[in-house]
Design a protein that fits this description.
The complex is a heterodimer.
Chain A: E1 5-7, E2 10-13, E3 19-24, E4 31-37, E5 43-50, E6 53-57, E7 65-68, E8 75-79, E9 88-95, E10 102-103, E11 107-111
Parallel strand pairs in A: 2-11
Antiparallel strand pairs in A: 1-3, 3-8, 4-5, 4-9, 5-6, 7-8, 9-10, 9-11
Chain B: E1 9-13, E2 18-23, E3 32-38, E4 45-50, E5 53-56, E6 61-64, E7 70-75, E8 84-91, E9 106-111
Classes of the chains: A mainly beta, B mainly beta.
């Protein structure tokens, strides 16, 4: 069964540093998403991406965040200057024209 | 997006049937009811989706009464590996960009 993959599985960074989280969505999918989950809390929507542009973003997704699909296979989330409160699991998801979103295994981001 | 209410936690034993009920009083005409499952440190995984009456797949059944103000996820003969958080989501899932809005979910603990 095809699956969404994410790298790295765990990223440790210092406050103020830039991080890029990478995702490879399922190959024929058209819609891409990033979610995050702070430890012990709900899964929160960050951003959706379609046709090479952002279709919706949440209040969390401020100017420090950006997304890109640089090469037709990867989908990246960049945090320009990380803060302690950015520590969370970040999940990438993708879907085709149907309703089911497929989630990746997540990247645990730890900001120290 | 309609707000959902579900129990915070449930306990069961191996081999029993588990029914998790979700209340969604403000469900809209175009809304579907979708359930996701999440294991610790993993991304959510789609279980089942329905609009009305009953839907069954290889892992679960979803019962939706005529007024659609609630729904029940039924897991037959649970095993230890069904221990997870189960999320009920309501929304117009046919939209291409549809983001998922997760609540706190129901934490199911299956014991031997």
């Amino acid at each position: 069964e095809p699956e969404v993959t994410q790298t790295p599985s765990h990223q440790v960074t210092q406050m103020g540093q830039e991080v890029i989280l990478r995702c490879v969505p399922i190959s024929n999918h058209l819609y891409f998403y990033w979610y995050r989950q702070i430890l012990g809390q709900k899964v929160e929507f960050l951003v959706s991406f379609y046709n090479n542009e952002i279709s919706e973003k949440s209040e969390i997704f401020d100017d420090q965040f950006s997304v890109e699909r640089p090469d037709g296979s990867n989908f990246t989330l960049k945090i320009r200057s990380t803060k302690l409160e950015d520590s969370a699991m970040y999940f990438c998801a993708s879907k085709d024209s149907f309703y089911e979103q497929y989630f990746g295994p997540g990247t645990r981001l730890t900001v120290t | 997006l309609a707000k959902t209410t579900q129990p915070i936690s449930m306990d069961s034993y191996e081999g029993q049937e588990v029914n998790i009920t979700c209340s969604h009083n403000n469900i809209a005409t175009n809304d579907y009811i979708t359930w996701y499952q999440q294991f610790p440190s993993q991304g959510p995984r789609f279980i089942i989706q329905g609009y009305k009456t009953k839907v069954t797949n290889e892992v679960a059944s979803l019962f939706i009464p005529a007024d659609r103000k609630s729904s029940t996820l039924s897991l037959p003969r649970v095993s230890l590996s069904d221990t997870a958080v189960y999320y009920c989501l309501v929304g117009d899932m046919k939209g291409g960009f549809q983001k998922l809005v997760f609540g706190t979910g129901t934490r199911l603990l299956v014991s031997p």
